[in-house]
Design brief:
By secondary structure, the protein is an alpha/beta fold. It has a single domain (11-215), classed as Aminopeptidase (3-Layer(aba) Sandwich), CATH 3.40.630.10. It is 30% helix and 17% strand. It has helices spanning 36-46, 64-67, 91-102, 119-131, 173-180, 199-215; strands at 11-13, 23-28, 54-59, 135-141, 145-149, 157-158, 161-163, 185-190. The chain has an eight-stranded mixed beta sheet. A hairpin with a 2-residue loop joins strand 6 (157-158) and strand 7. The radius of gyration is 16 Å and the shape is globular. The two termini are 31 Å apart.
């Protein structure tokens, strides 16, 4: 449930005829409610063919309270950036320093009053704990690239998205799951927040992602 009581949607897709050895992949869209493309592309991918051998849990919209407002916004109903609220080591001092010194107390990037203070954050942590994903894929916008955190080898590219290194944000999913829990995390940054990639680009990212997942066991 969200801060305002909404249900967070999730779809589970088991591989046909699996023997229990399938890779578990958690796919997340809509962590930031104003990144419309990150929600739309996950719904598009739900309609495309999925390769065998992968057990998916797909969360198209982690932050419905942020999206389903008269004017969508990045943060949740309580004004917290969900991608700064996860309990990374030294969260208190590092998140406060980042928010004050690097963002000038930008309300769009408020990390919250405490680590894991938000119900959406706790819901995601529970999903990670119970599903035990081998890989987490989180879709955002708008850097036209992707970031890899955690063990193992990153893909060279995903469609037209190339790997880049961004600032390490305290409380982010990459910092929490990738570097703290040791689960590979791919953070995809689509080119635009409000414009969905065309059908060909959407398909290419999906194909490259599944190809990498199939060929790179962790």
């Amino acid at each position: 449930m969200t801060a305002s009581g909404r249900v967070i949607p999730m779809v589970e897709s088991h591989p046909v005829g699996g023997d229990g050895s399938a890779r578990r992949v958690l796919l997340i869209g809509g962590t930031h409610g104003d990144e419309y493309a990150s929600v739309s592309i996950v719904f598009k991918w739900l309609q495309l063919e999925r390769r065998p051998g992968i057990h998916w849990r797909i969360v198209p919209l982690l932050n419905p309270d942020g999206l389903l407002r008269r004017q969508s916004r990045r943060v949740n109903a309580r004004g917290v950036d969900l991608n700064r609220n996860l309990p990374t080591p030294n969260w208190k001092q590092e998140s406060e320093h980042y928010w004050i010194q690097r963002t000038g107390r930008d309300p769009r990037r408020y990390p919250g009053p405490a680590a894991a203070s938000e119900p959406e954050t706790r819901w995601l942590m529970k999903e990670i704990d119970t599903f035990r994903p081998d890989v987490i894929v989180s879709v955002h916008a708008h850097y036209a690239s992707f970031v890899y955190d955690g063990p193992g080898s990153a893909p060279h590219r995903l469609g037209n998205l190339r790997r880049r290194q961004l600032w390490k944000y305290p409380g982010s999913l990459g910092a929490y799951a990738g570097r703290h829990l040791g689960i590979p995390v791919l953070t995809l940054e689509l080119p635009w927040a409000g414009i969905l990639p065309d059908a060909r680009a959407t398909q290419r990212i999906w194909d490259d992602l599944q190809h990498w997942l199939s060929r790179n066991p962790t």
